[in-house]
């Protein structure tokens, strides 16, 4: 954990952000989740917003923040089995939990109902975030005496906006955590580069990357994408045997000890060298990514950065024969999204897609920037104006998705702008993506973490 004063200051900052709002804020932590019976559990992961404001990484906690006072209360689930110490060891004392989180009060969880009832009788507003786990919905339903169906419709927008405003800008101690995660992520990616070769199964490489996580005592930030079918954007299967000439997308990242995420993608040529038809695409993609990073600065919208990257991509893909006409028209029409159908990146922090549980429209958009209905652009997770110390990913890609190519051709989408025969020639080429974690600084941006090879000669050397 950080120093207890960090969490006290964050809770006070939340009060200030919520302005004249009154009442209490309820922030439930997570419970343990069983795999198939009560004592066989998934690895525990705390709710990120609870972690941000209270810091405690243990199940069965509920935080209550009084908006009209400086009193913060931590409710703790009591152990009902006196023999639990045999199986789980001695739990931290309540005094330790209160000191570590900087809370003035700590009470048994059963008393949370009394606190909520008191607030309700006094007609004080109850502020909570939309739950994304059924057990959290059940807890809120019971405390607030509302149906589970009613909970999602009664979340506090003022609380959401306050949490987003605080969490989207990273403090130096948070950047340090992200960089510590990236140091382990570098080990994972360099090992994958050394081991990726013909005849190896994808699952073998994934197992070796997870061995590094196990050795460091860390969790993965998300299930890794390691696949020679990189055109399937969220391909979480690892059953393919790699063959010479394949391109493999390796999208993998570690969490830091305090739960901050990393997220890096590299594209690897299985034979150790990019083939003649692959190298121009890879060179172009790297140019697009570096162009996008150079555009980053406070005050620019990420929508404009995405469009700048798309224009650079369209120019290059036109030169390679995939598109016809004016690059500006290729972007404005959305034709470019045939090979780049997702957004340029997303915020990153305690969640790998930071705060996405609060609603992407709250996190990636604002009153000035709304979601486009256009294919490709509508998939942007982040579009709003950037601020200093926002931390985000920059991850352009080029994909050859056979079903999408066939569908668009049959429907005659952008037929004057797309050279469909050229795309069909590459329909088995898979996908390419390059991704780094970047922090927006006062006059530009900086790629976080140690250097993970991405220039083609460096990738080939790392794989030799």
From TrEMBL:
This is Xaa-Pro aminopeptidase. SUPFAM superfamilies: Creatinase/aminopeptidase, Creatinase/prolidase N-terminal domain. Its cofactor is Mn(2+). Belongs to the peptidase M24B family. Residues 2-135 form the Aminopeptidase P N-terminal domain. It catalyses: Release of any N-terminal amino acid, including proline, that is linked to proline, even from a dipeptide or tripeptide. Pfam families: AMP_N, Peptidase_M24. The keyword Chloroplast does not apply. InterPro entries: Aminopep_P_N, Creatin/AminoP/Spt16_N, Creatinase/aminopeptidase-like, Pept_M24, Peptidase_M24B_aminopep-P_CS, X-Pro_dipept-like. Its EC number is 3.4.11.9. Gene3D superfamilies: Creatinase/methionine aminopeptidase superfamily, Creatinase/prolidase N-terminal domain. One of its GO terms (cellular component) is cytosol. One of its GO terms (molecular function) is manganese ion binding. It comes from Pseudomonas endophytica. It is an enzyme of class 3 (hydrolase). GO terms for biological process: proteolysis. Keywords: Aminopeptidase, Hydrolase, Manganese, Metal-binding, Metalloprotease, Protease. Transmembrane segments: none annotated.
């Amino acid at each position: 954990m950080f120093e207890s004063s960090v969490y006290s200051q964050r809770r006070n900052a939340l009060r200030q952000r919520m302005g004249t709002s009154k009442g209490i804020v309820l922030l439930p932590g997570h419970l343990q989740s069983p795999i198939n019976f009560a004592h066989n559990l998934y690895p525990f992961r705390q709710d990120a917003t609870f972690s941000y404001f209270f810091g405690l990484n243990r199940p069965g906690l509920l935080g209550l923040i009084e908006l009209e006072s400086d009193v913060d209360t931590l409710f703790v689930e009591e152990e009902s089995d006196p023999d639990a110490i045999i199986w789980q060891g001695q739990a931290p004392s309540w005094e330790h939990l209160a000191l570590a989180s900087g809370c003035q009060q700590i009470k048994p969880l059963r008393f949370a109902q009394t606190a909520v009832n008191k607030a309700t009788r006094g007609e004080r507003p109850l502020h909570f975030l939309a739950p994304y786990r059924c057990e959290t919905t059940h807890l809120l339903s019971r405390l607030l005496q509302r149906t589970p169906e009613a909970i999602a419709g009664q979340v506090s927008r003022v609380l959401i906006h306050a949490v987003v405003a605080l969490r989207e800008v990273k403090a130096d101690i948070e950047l340090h955590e992200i960089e510590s995660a990236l140091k382990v992520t570098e080990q994972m990616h360099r090992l994958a580069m050394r081991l990726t070769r013909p005849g190896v199964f994808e699952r073998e490489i994934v197992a070796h990357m997870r061995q590094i996580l196990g050795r460091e005592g860390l969790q993965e930030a998300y299930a890794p994408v390691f696949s020679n079918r990189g055109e399937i954007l969220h391909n979480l299967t690892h059953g393919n045997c790699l063959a010479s000439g394949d391109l493999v997308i390796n999208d993998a990242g570690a969490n830091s000890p305090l739960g901050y995420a990393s997220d890096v993608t590299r594209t690897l040529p299985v034979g150790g060298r990019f083939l003649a038809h692959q190298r121009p695409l890879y060179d172009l993609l790297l140019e697009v990514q570096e162009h996008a990073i150079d555009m980053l600065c406070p005050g620019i919208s990420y929508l404009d950065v995405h469009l700048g990257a798309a224009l650079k991509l369209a120019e290059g893909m036109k030169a390679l024969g995939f598109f016809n006409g004016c690059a500006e028209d290729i972007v404005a029409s959305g034709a470019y999204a045939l090979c780049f159908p997702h957004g340029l990146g997303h915020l990153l922090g305690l969640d790998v897609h930071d705060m996405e549980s609060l609603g992407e429209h709250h996190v990636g958009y604002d009153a000035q920037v709304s979601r486009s209905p256009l294919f490709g652009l509508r998939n942007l997770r982040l579009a709003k104006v950037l601020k200093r110390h926002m931390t985000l990913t920059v991850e352009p890609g080029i994909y050859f998705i056979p079903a999408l190519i066939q569908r668009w051709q049959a429907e005659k989408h952008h037929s004057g702008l797309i050279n469909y025969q050229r795309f069909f020639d590459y329909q088995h080429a898979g996908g390419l993506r390059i991704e780094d974690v970047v922090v927006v600084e006062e006059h530009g941006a900086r790629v976080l973490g140690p250097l993970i090879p991405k220039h083609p000669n460096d990738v080939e050397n790392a794989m030799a």
